[in-house]
C-alpha cells in the first residue's frame, strides 16, 4: 500500500455515523462507487461551455465524498467546481485518485 | 417524528436518512425539490423538512419559499437547509427564503441530533401557540356573540319608532357605537301633563364598562316613578324634578371613585312642554345644544359646567328656551364633534351647525340621514362612519 493512500479514505467517519453498521456501510460504499465513476464519466463528456452542469455535478460529488470520509477527493471536486468556467481538468489524475480512493474503501465492503 | 429528506446526491441522502432512522425517526426520501413539494402536498405536510440547497428543477431555497407561501394553519414546518456554502450572505438569503436552521455538510451525528432536538422544541412551542390561538379565537367569537346579544338589549332601551309616531312632536335619532356596545344612550320619557323628559348622555370611554353604566342610568331616567331620578316624592304625590335638580341628584350619586374605575358621564337633560312650548334644560359637561329656528337661524347653547362625577357639591342651572312650531333641537354626543378626518382634524360644533343649516328645508325624516352622510364624507371612511368614539344624535321638531 502506498503510505499516502491511507489519507484518501477515513473509515472512522462512517463507523461513527452508522454506529458500525457494516451492512449499511457496504451498501453505501457500493452506491458511492457506482455514482462516483458514473458522474466522472458524465463530467468528462460535458462540452467546455456546459459550466453550470459541471459545477452542479462537481458540487454534488464534493458533498458525497465529504460525507463518506473521502476528503482529498472532495477537495479535487471542489477545485472542479471553482474552476468550472475553465476546462483545465486533468482527468487522468482525477480518475487515478478516484480509483485509489475506491481501493482504500473496498476492503470495508463486507457483503 | 416524520421527516422529509430532499437531496439529489444518492450517497448523502442514504447516509442522512439512515442516520435519522437510527435516531428513531420516520424518513421519506426524494432526490429533487419538485418531488419534495409533490410529497408535501400529497402527504399533507411534514413537521420537519431537510433539504439540500443545490438541487435540479427546484432548489432548496425555492422549496423553502413554496413551503412558507403555503404554510398551513394546522402546524408549522421546520425547514433545515443542508449546505456546504460559506459566508454570511448565503445564510441571510436562506433565512429570507424561510429556512429555520442550517445543517452543514458533511453530516455530523451530534449536530444532526442537536438540530432535530431544537426543531422539535420549536415545533412543540409552535403547536402550543397555535392551539392557544385557536382557543383565543373561539373565546373571542363567544365574547362577540355575547356582546351582540348585549347590544340588542341596549338598542331595546332606545326610543321606539312606534312610540315616536304617537308623540305630539317629531323625533328622530341614531346611535353608531364604535364597538358592539355603546357608552352613549338617550331617550324620550313621558312625564305627564304635556311634558316630556329628553336626555342624551355619554359615559366616559366605550365598550362593556361604559355601556353597563349607561344602561343603569337609562333605568334611573325612566318614567317608572318609584325608582326614577326624574321624580321627587312630595307627601303622597310625585313631582317632576327640574333638569338642574335631576343632574344635581345624579352628581351626588355618581361621584368618581376607585370602585367606579374613574368613570364619569356628560348629560344634557331637558323637559319639553308642548303646551307652553318651552324647553327647560340643564347640561353637565355635554357638547352644546343646537337650536334651529324655522327661518334657518341657528343658536348654540354652550355648557360651561363639569361632567357628572367631578365635584360632589356642584350646582347646576336650568335654562329655558321658548320654541315656536317648526323649531328644531339637536342633542348629540362628543363623538360627533370629535370625529376626525384623515388629516386628524376634528369636525367641531361649527361644522355640525353648518350641516344642520343646509338641511333646514329638508323633510324632517331626512335631516339625520343627510347629517350622517356629511359625517361619512368628513371622515373619508367609505360607505359607513367608523368612529373612534360612540356617535349619538337626537333631533326634535316642535
Could you characterize the architecture of this molecule?
The complex is a heterodimer of chains A (111) and B (398). By secondary structure, chain A is mainly alpha-helical. In chain A, 69% of the residues lie in helices and 0% in strands. Chain A has five helices and no strands. Chain A has helices at residues 11-18, 22-45, 51-68, 71-82, 91-105. Chain B is elongated and about 100 Å long. In chain B, a hairpin with a 2-residue loop joins β9 and β10 (237-240). A five-stranded parallel beta sheet of chain B has the order 2-1-3-4-5, sandwiched between helices. Chain B has a five-stranded antiparallel beta sheet with strand order 6-17-16-13-14. The relative contact order of chain B is 0.09. Chain B contains eleven helices and 17 strands. In chain B, α2 runs parallel beside α3. Chain B has 398 residues and is α+β, with helices and mostly antiparallel strands. At the A-B interface, α1, α2 and α3 of A face α1 of B.
Short summary of the structure?
The complex is a heterodimer of chains A (111) and B (398). Chain A has helices at residues 11-18, 22-45, 51-68, 71-82, 91-105. Chain A is an all-alpha fold and 111 residues long.
Amino acid at each position: 500500500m502506498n503510505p499516502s493512500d491511507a489519507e484518501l479514505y477515513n473509515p472512522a467517519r462512517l463507523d461513527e455515523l452508522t454506529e458500525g453498521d457494516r451492512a449499511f456501510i457496504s451498501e453505501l460504499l457500493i452506491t458511492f462507487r457506482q455514482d462516483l465513476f458514473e458522474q466522472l464519466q458524465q463530467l468528462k463528456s460535458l462540452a467546455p461551455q456546459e459550466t453550470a452542469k459541471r459545477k452542479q455535478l462537481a458540487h454534488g460529488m464534493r458533498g458525497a465524498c465529504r460525507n463518506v470520509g473521502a476528503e482529498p477527493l472532495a477537495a479535487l471536486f471542489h477545485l472542479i467546481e471553482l474552476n468550472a468556467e475553465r476546462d483545465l481538468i486533468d482527468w487522468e489524475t482525477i480518475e487515478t485518485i478516484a480509483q485509489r480512493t475506491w481501493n482504500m474503501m473496498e476492503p470495508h465492503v463486507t457483503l | 417524528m416524520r421527516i422529509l429528506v430532499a437531496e439529489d446526491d444518492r450517497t448523502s441522502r442514504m447516509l442522512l436518512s439512515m442516520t435519522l432512522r437510527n435516531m428513531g425517526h420516520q424518513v421519506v426520501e426524494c432526490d429533487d425539490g419538485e418531488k419534495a413539494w409533490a410529497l408535501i402536498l400529497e402527504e399533507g405536510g411534514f413537521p420537519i423538512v431537510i433539504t439540500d440547497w443545490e438541487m435540479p428543477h427546484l432548489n432548496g431555497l425555492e422549496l423553502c419559499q413554496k413551503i412558507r407561501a403555503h404554510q398551513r394553519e394546522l402546524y408549522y414546518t421546520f425547514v433545515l437547509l443542508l449546505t456546504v456554502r460559506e459566508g454570511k450572505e448565503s445564510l441571510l438569503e436562506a433565512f429570507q427564503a424561510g429556512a429555520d436552521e442550517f445543517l452543514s455538510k458533511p453530516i455530523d451525528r451530534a449536530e444532526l441530533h442537536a438540530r432535530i432536538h431544537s426543531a422539535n422544541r420549536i415545533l412543540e412551542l409552535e403547536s402550543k401557540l397555535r392551539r392557544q390561538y385557536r382557543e383565543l379565537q373561539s373565546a373571542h367569537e363567544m365574547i362577540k356573540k355575547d356582546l351582540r346579544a348585549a347590544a340588542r338589549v341596549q338598542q331595546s332601551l332606545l326610543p321606539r319608532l312606534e312610540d315616536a309616531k304617537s308623540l305630539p312632536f317629531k323625533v328622530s335619532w341614531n346611535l353608531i357605537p364604535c364597538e358592539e356596545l355603546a357608552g352613549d344612550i338617550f331617550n324620550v320619557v313621558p312625564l305627564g301633563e304635556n311634558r316630556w323628559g329628553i336626555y342624551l348622555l355619554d359615559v366616559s370611554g366605550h365598550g362593556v364598562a361604559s355601556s353597563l353604566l349607561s344602561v343603569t342610568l337609562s333605568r334611573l331616567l325612566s318614567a317608572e316613578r318609584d325608582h326614577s331620578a326624574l321624580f321627587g316624592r312630595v307627601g303622597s304625590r310625585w313631582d317632576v324634578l327640574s333638569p338642574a335638580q335631576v343632574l344635581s341628584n345624579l352628581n351626588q350619586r355618581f361621584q368618581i371613585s376607585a370602585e367606579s374605575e374613574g368613570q364619569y358621564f356628560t348629560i344634557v337633560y331637558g323637559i319639553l312642554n308642548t303646551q307652553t312650548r318651552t324647553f327647560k334644560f340643564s347640561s353637565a359637561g355635554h357638547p352644546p345644544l343646537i337650536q334651529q329656528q324655522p327661518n334657518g337661524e341657528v343658536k348654540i347653547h354652550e355648557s360651561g359646567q363639569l361632567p357628572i362625577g367631578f365635584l360632589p357639591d356642584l350646582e347646576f342651572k336650568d335654562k329655558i328656551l321658548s320654541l315656536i312650531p317648526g323649531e328644531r333641537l339637536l342633542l348629540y354626543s362628543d363623538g360627533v364633534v370629535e370625529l376626525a378626518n384623515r388629516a386628524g382634524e376634528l369636525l367641531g360644533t361649527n361644522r355640525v351647525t353648518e350641516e344642520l343649516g343646509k338641511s333646514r328645508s329638508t323633510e324632517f325624516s331626512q335631516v339625520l340621514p343627510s347629517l350622517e352622510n356629511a359625517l361619512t364624507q368628513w371622515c373619508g371612511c367609505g360607505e359607513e362612519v367608523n368612529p373612534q368614539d360612540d356617535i349619538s344624535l337626537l333631533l326634535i321638531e316642535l
